[in-house]
Design goal:
It is a single chain. The protein is of the alpha+beta class. The protein has one domain: Immunoglobulin-like (Sandwich). Helix content is 16%, strand content 45%. It is built from two helices and nine strands; from the N terminus they run ααβββββββββ. It has a five-stranded mixed beta sheet, with no helix packed on it. The protein has a four-stranded antiparallel beta sheet with strand order 1-3-7-5, with no helix packed on it. The longest helix is centred in the N-terminal third of the chain and has 14 residues. It starts with a helix and ends with a strand.
Length: 146
Protein backbone atom coordinates (compact mmCIF):
# COMPACT_ATOMS: atom_id res chain seq x y z
CA UNK A 1 0.00 0.00 0.00
CA UNK A 2 2.85 2.36 0.90
CA UNK A 3 4.41 1.80 -2.51
CA UNK A 4 1.14 2.68 -4.27
CA UNK A 5 0.95 5.98 -2.38
CA UNK A 6 4.54 6.80 -3.37
CA UNK A 7 3.81 5.99 -7.01
CA UNK A 8 0.84 8.38 -7.02
CA UNK A 9 2.93 11.07 -5.31
CA UNK A 10 5.68 10.66 -7.92
CA UNK A 11 3.13 10.79 -10.72
CA UNK A 12 1.66 14.00 -9.30
CA UNK A 13 5.09 15.62 -9.08
CA UNK A 14 5.92 14.63 -12.63
CA UNK A 15 2.59 15.92 -13.98
CA UNK A 16 2.82 19.24 -12.16
CA UNK A 17 5.37 21.74 -13.36
CA UNK A 18 6.48 24.70 -11.39
CA UNK A 19 5.19 28.02 -12.63
CA UNK A 20 7.39 30.82 -13.75
CA UNK A 21 9.40 31.99 -16.64
CA UNK A 22 12.33 29.85 -17.58
CA UNK A 23 10.54 26.57 -16.94
CA UNK A 24 11.31 23.72 -19.31
CA UNK A 25 9.26 20.66 -20.11
CA UNK A 26 10.55 17.14 -19.51
CA UNK A 27 12.13 15.29 -22.41
CA UNK A 28 9.12 13.04 -22.92
CA UNK A 29 6.72 10.57 -21.46
CA UNK A 30 9.21 7.69 -21.62
CA UNK A 31 11.34 9.08 -18.78
CA UNK A 32 8.27 9.89 -16.66
CA UNK A 33 6.72 6.45 -17.24
CA UNK A 34 10.00 4.71 -16.40
CA UNK A 35 10.37 6.72 -13.18
CA UNK A 36 6.83 5.92 -12.02
CA UNK A 37 7.07 2.20 -12.82
CA UNK A 38 10.43 1.80 -11.07
CA UNK A 39 9.79 4.11 -8.10
CA UNK A 40 11.02 2.86 -4.73
CA UNK A 41 11.33 5.39 -1.89
CA UNK A 42 14.07 3.39 -0.15
CA UNK A 43 16.27 3.33 -3.24
CA UNK A 44 15.41 6.68 -4.86
CA UNK A 45 17.50 9.43 -6.35
CA UNK A 46 18.65 12.14 -3.96
CA UNK A 47 19.67 15.64 -5.05
CA UNK A 48 22.08 17.26 -2.60
CA UNK A 49 23.20 20.86 -3.17
CA UNK A 50 26.47 22.22 -1.73
CA UNK A 51 24.50 25.35 -0.86
CA UNK A 52 20.90 26.40 -1.41
CA UNK A 53 21.34 30.18 -1.13
CA UNK A 54 23.63 32.62 -2.92
CA UNK A 55 24.12 36.31 -2.17
CA UNK A 56 25.26 38.38 -5.15
CA UNK A 57 25.99 41.27 -2.79
CA UNK A 58 25.73 44.84 -4.08
CA UNK A 59 24.65 45.20 -7.72
CA UNK A 60 24.06 48.20 -9.94
CA UNK A 61 20.58 48.61 -11.39
CA UNK A 62 20.43 46.78 -14.72
CA UNK A 63 23.36 44.50 -13.95
CA UNK A 64 23.01 40.89 -15.13
CA UNK A 65 24.69 38.13 -13.13
CA UNK A 66 24.54 34.36 -12.85
CA UNK A 67 25.48 31.69 -10.34
CA UNK A 68 25.78 27.91 -10.68
CA UNK A 69 24.49 25.83 -7.77
CA UNK A 70 26.51 22.60 -7.60
CA UNK A 71 24.66 19.38 -6.75
CA UNK A 72 25.36 15.66 -6.54
CA UNK A 73 23.05 12.66 -6.85
CA UNK A 74 23.61 11.06 -3.45
CA UNK A 75 20.84 8.51 -3.99
CA UNK A 76 20.77 5.00 -5.38
CA UNK A 77 18.90 5.61 -8.66
CA UNK A 78 19.36 7.92 -11.61
CA UNK A 79 18.33 11.52 -10.92
CA UNK A 80 16.16 13.35 -13.45
CA UNK A 81 15.39 17.05 -13.06
CA UNK A 82 12.00 17.50 -14.70
CA UNK A 83 11.74 21.26 -14.38
CA UNK A 84 12.84 24.49 -12.75
CA UNK A 85 10.72 27.54 -12.17
CA UNK A 86 11.51 31.00 -10.88
CA UNK A 87 9.51 33.36 -8.67
CA UNK A 88 10.08 36.25 -11.08
CA UNK A 89 10.75 36.80 -14.77
CA UNK A 90 14.00 38.50 -13.78
CA UNK A 91 15.39 35.10 -12.76
CA UNK A 92 15.98 32.35 -15.32
CA UNK A 93 17.20 28.88 -14.28
CA UNK A 94 18.84 26.27 -16.50
CA UNK A 95 19.52 22.66 -15.57
CA UNK A 96 20.97 19.46 -17.03
CA UNK A 97 18.73 17.35 -19.24
CA UNK A 98 18.59 13.57 -19.03
CA UNK A 99 19.66 11.20 -16.29
CA UNK A 100 22.35 11.82 -13.69
CA UNK A 101 23.77 8.58 -12.33
CA UNK A 102 24.28 7.98 -8.58
CA UNK A 103 27.47 9.71 -7.42
CA UNK A 104 27.57 12.06 -10.41
CA UNK A 105 27.09 15.80 -10.18
CA UNK A 106 25.87 18.81 -12.11
CA UNK A 107 24.80 22.43 -11.87
CA UNK A 108 21.59 24.42 -11.81
CA UNK A 109 22.56 27.83 -13.16
CA UNK A 110 20.48 30.85 -12.21
CA UNK A 111 20.70 34.07 -14.21
CA UNK A 112 19.41 37.27 -12.59
CA UNK A 113 18.66 40.60 -14.27
CA UNK A 114 18.49 43.46 -11.76
CA UNK A 115 16.66 45.85 -14.13
CA UNK A 116 13.63 47.33 -12.40
CA UNK A 117 14.82 46.23 -8.96
CA UNK A 118 15.90 48.42 -6.05
CA UNK A 119 17.06 47.56 -2.55
CA UNK A 120 17.09 44.06 -1.02
CA UNK A 121 15.88 41.45 -3.52
CA UNK A 122 15.16 37.79 -2.83
CA UNK A 123 14.18 35.39 -5.60
CA UNK A 124 13.41 31.69 -5.45
CA UNK A 125 14.04 28.91 -7.93
CA UNK A 126 12.15 25.66 -7.44
CA UNK A 127 13.89 22.53 -8.73
CA UNK A 128 11.55 19.60 -9.44
CA UNK A 129 13.03 16.12 -9.77
CA UNK A 130 12.48 12.46 -8.96
CA UNK A 131 14.50 13.00 -5.76
CA UNK A 132 13.09 12.62 -2.27
CA UNK A 133 11.78 15.24 -1.55
CA UNK A 134 10.65 16.03 -5.07
CA UNK A 135 11.16 19.81 -4.78
CA UNK A 136 14.11 21.88 -3.61
CA UNK A 137 14.11 25.65 -3.31
CA UNK A 138 17.20 27.65 -4.18
CA UNK A 139 17.41 31.30 -3.15
CA UNK A 140 19.36 34.17 -4.63
CA UNK A 141 19.57 37.58 -3.09
CA UNK A 142 21.13 40.90 -3.90
CA UNK A 143 21.10 44.52 -2.86
CA UNK A 144 20.39 46.57 -5.96
CA UNK A 145 21.49 50.22 -5.94
CA UNK A 146 19.74 52.97 -7.81
Amino acid sequence: MKKVVYVFMAAGLLMCGCGGQGEKESKGDSIASDLIENFDADASAQITFDEEMHDFGNLSAGEQVSYSFHFRNTGKKDLVITGCGASCGCTVPSYPQGRIAPGKDGYVTVSFNSSGKAGETYEEVTVVSNSQPGRKTLIIRAKVGI
